[in-house]
């Protein structure tokens, strides 16, 4: 019997590596769904603003003399193309009679670092950068936070005071899958975007199962909103703020593929469906072996950035199966000291979970998720990381894809049902859909 072999080129750092798999072993190549770009990006933006969902046009909601706070993403999200769409948003505000001096741009950095003037300029684009300044939110600046109340989940809602002093808050950003909130965009530009550190960490701690030893909460995951505690808590936090309007983009292949505008809940709901249509990929069954690449640089610049790939690959892998993740990680583990401590300095997953529960942080959770995954699956990284670095985390590190496959076949034999994920950081496998 002749065995047909297929070859794939998978992105790795700034280059590619070859993967050779027998065709009969391949269950599915999990890639984004085909999309047709039939309109220029500017036209997509203008049409969304002209046809808001669940709301009047922004120009009808604002009035002369009113102050408007426009919440924008930080520099890590330049893929959202703020410099392209913000001029159209400002035009809409001007159509409603709002003057330049009454528009405040706040960068929703959440708990991230502040931005440089050049980064602010990049976010606004040349047309707006000479007219406006950007204020970075500071989650630890108690003097510039105002307490609004507590959600039913117990999260104290502290929000940027400058934003709350405005007559209107307009949310911008982009919608993609998010491993905690289900989807980014929308309410995330309130919490964590312009919330206090305490607010963010209390909310994100809902990612853990309430039962010690059970690990991550099963409902807190990418692509889930209905019973996702973090998503629901974020919505409650946003209800204290009551944003006037939302504008979010959906991107594919490096460009704006769609946009939604209007009520911050209704428009985001519509945008989530658009993301699903592009990056939600149906699979008939989970695989014994999943081979996934983050998609090359900068998505695999360090291990921390590869979390999205791991999360998506888990959705396609049988419990006890094997995941091979291609993440060059030339900058090492990434994250902060908490990430490294969680990965390197504990002897069990339960000890890591206890440390996370006692003092929760997002950085710790990301590192914990890697370790918890290695306890449920065989996790092999193809990486430039030191091969012995992650032994305590039970994560195998090898230098080549061929070496990884040799380990898998030696342990499990050949003929393994295999999924291949060339866009692992973006595509979310959905079983039986």
Automatic annotation (TrEMBL):
GO MF entries: lactate racemase activity
Residue span, Lactate racemase C-terminal domain: 284-425
Pfam families: Lar_N, LarA_C
Domain spans labelled LarA-like N-terminal: 12-209
NCBIfam families: Ni_dep_LarA
Name by which UniProt lists this protein: Uncharacterized protein
